[in-house]
Amino acid sequence: MASATARQPDELRRQVHENLESLGLDVLDLVNLRLGDATGPQPGSIAESFQALVELQRQGLIRHLGVSNATVGQVAEARSIASIVWVQNMYNLAHRHDDGLFDTLAGAGIAYVPFFPLGGFSPLQSSALTRVASRLSATPMSVALAWLLQRSPNILLVPGTSSTAHLRENVAGAGLTLSPDDLAELDQIGR
Ligand SMILES: NC(=O)c1ccc[n+]([C@@H]2O[C@H](COP(=O)([O-])OP(=O)(O)OC[C@H]3O[C@@H](n4cnc5c(N)ncnc54)[C@H](OP(=O)(O)O)[C@@H]3O)[C@@H](O)[C@H]2O)c1
Q1: In this structure, which residue's CA is closest to atom 30 in ligand 1?
Q2: What is the Å distance from ligand 1's center to 58 Cα?
Q3: Count of alpha carbons within 13 Å of 14, Cβ hemisphere only?
Q4: I need a labelling partner for 172 at 20 to 30 A (CA). Which of 10, 52, 85, 118 fits?
């Protein structure tokens, strides 16, 4: 994966070759062009950077392309240049700026991979989440993940944890079914 700061074509080419060598691969399955900064997506054309990755794809060094931390305009710009298979942006129960983008991508069969699905450095906390979790005899975090999974079939989750107990809780979220009442209550968190 290219580093957080790789934007210049030369730098992107160098990092893709370094990744291939360090992983001992002939082709990288997926490369994300990581955009924006720590405060979120930043507007601006991505054509030059994205074209560099498209060229590497044409050379057979990359199978699929994606964009991360991107504005709606940048996602559209990437799609006008080449096919993308996913968008990785910040999205969770409390942070729903991408609701519209999410639905557009679902219609186009492009995966949406939320980063910070559990809130990242500020883990999700909400009385509604706690209430729904207690009704379901589940943990709040597993309910937050279940909500994402029920949000749309194009979602792909990579919640981070350093704890086996949390990993078990998070996997349990995939088995929860939220009722329309649960969903309506949880929907209020991000509104
Ligand atoms: N593309 C980008 O720009 C970008 C930016 C940021 C992150 N990411 C990626 O997005 C993914 C998710 O990011 P993330 O891991 O930082 O955010 P996250 O999944 O929202 O949150 C992880 C935090 O939640 C805690 N947690 C996990 N499961 C829990 C549970 N069941 N109960 C209580 N706390 C729990 C973790 O602590 P414990 O370790 O104690 O469980 C950790 O502090 C990662 O793969 C990351 O590499 C991408």
Answers
A1: 166
A2: 33
A3: 8
A4: 85
**Per-residue pLDDT tens digits of the chain, which is 191 residues long:** 544 567 899 999 999 999 999 999 999 999 999 999 999 999 999 999 999 999 999 999 999 999 999 999 999 999 999 999 999 999 999 999 999 999 999 999 999 999 999 999 989 999 999 999 999 999 999 999 999 999 999 999 999 999 999 999 999 999 999 999 999 999 999 87
CA-proximal residue: ligand 1, atom 5 (nearest): 115
- Whether 160 lines ligand 1, by a CB cut-off of 6 Å, is yes
CA distance 140 to 127: 10
Model pTM? 0.93
Atom of ligand 1 lying closest to residue 169 CA: 31
CA distance 27 to 99: 33
Tokens at 64, concatenated: 């699929």
Structure tokens at 1: 């994966």
